[in-house]
Design brief:
- Helix content is about 80%, strand content about 0%.
- Helix 16 crosses helix 17.
- The protein has a domain of about 50 residues.
- The radius of gyration is 27 Å and the shape is globular.
- The chain is an all-alpha fold.
- It has 19 helices and no strands.
Length: about 500
Amino acid sequence: MTKFILKRLGISFLVLLGGSVLMYVLTISSGDPLADLRESNAKNKEQLIDSRIAYMGLDQPWYQRYWNWLRGAAGCVYGACNLGTNRNGVNVTSLLGNAASSTLRLVILATLLAIVIGIAVGIITAIRQYSGFDYVVTFLTFLFFSLPVFWAAVLLKEFGAIRYNDWIASPTISFTQALLIGLVLAVILQSVLGGDWRRRALTAGITVVFVVAALMYFTAAGWWRAPALGIGIVTLVSIAAAVGVTALVAGLANRRVLYATLTTVGVGVIAYYVVGPMLVSPTFPLLLLFLIIAIGVGLASGWFWGGYSRKVAMGLSALTAVIMGLLFVLDRAVYAWAGLLKLKPRPISTIGSNTPNFTGNFWETLLDNGTQLLLPTILLTLISIASYSRYTRSSMLETMNQDFVRTARSKGLSERVVIVKHAFRNALIPITTIVAFDFAGLIGGAVITEKVFGWKGMGELFISGLTAVDPAPVMAFFLVTGLAAIIMNMLADIAYAFLDPRIRR
């Protein structure tokens, strides 16, 4: 395994080196870096041209300039990173730090959401093949995949920001609107759960009644402007999560695993009141510490109850703890929504990665950053979901037709065990490849998204460098995307070995 990793790193380095040469040559050949000065009417035009030539090294051959950049980039290995300066004299390394953190924040979140949602939808459509739900999802995925980014961004700005901001000023949902929303959700849910017509009708009826009642209550109580979850909703959702992950992975018949996850929820309910005062104005290190403690509690609960299923119990209990911890954060963030509306009456932003001169507490600032992140994340997620769901569906269908799956069914294993423990794991192998390429691709593809939403990230760095025929910012962009591709492909190779033990031999 070590030999394989070293070999892949060597090949990746050579590919990255060759790509950097090509990118540098293409950038410096894309235009004239002196075009703005040549068209200038300044009296000292010639002096300015000579100064820029000397500053950017335009009097040197291209390979000498590339070598100077390469030496500075190589210094990043031992902590002496020097990616040069742009033609305005600003250090590119400092620009790259801010741009990369902004873009990675956007891309990582979009990738995680796309993976979770896309794989879940792909599995359901594979199980419900040729159902109405399958056809609808197929239509939507092809629609999302073919959507022009700029057009989808305009729609998101119009309906997800402008009209929502108008609505939230005086939020109200009529009975007719609530009924329509309930009917749409009922159609979706009954299609997902399936069953005979009686079960479908019961599912749809319960969904409509619940949705209409909830929306009418929220409107009457003014919940849209002053929302709150509280310990009741947090506990119910946590119990549902504990039962759900147990049923999906271990089965409800495995009481030890179920008791472990429910014990974790019980400890979490107590912790809700214990750590509550400390969550009024926390810090990110404090939240990270609480998360680590929560995972430790989950592992301890799984170890205590696990017995012969100790490994599974510890993993699912830790997952339950993480989910409950996220619900704690969501509870506090939702409670701070009313404060955000006072500071920012139109909360959903259409441009920029932060609100200038925003002053709020920890949770209000977190919500502000989240609203800035919302629209571009949705856009990137929708595009990626299409590919993840299609690849997952085709991979699951192919795997479920394999001999080992038919053998598992013939031995009397439940459909849950067949899908989760046999089909799904093997279906993940080709999907892993897509994830690796998609992550690096999203960084490059985020250029258009960042431009549309005014996001100060890698896209702006790339466009500014290319427009000015300035290789330093462009090469910084290439360096990040190239390293991201190498790292993600290496992680994909390691994941292959985990998913398929035959690869480790």
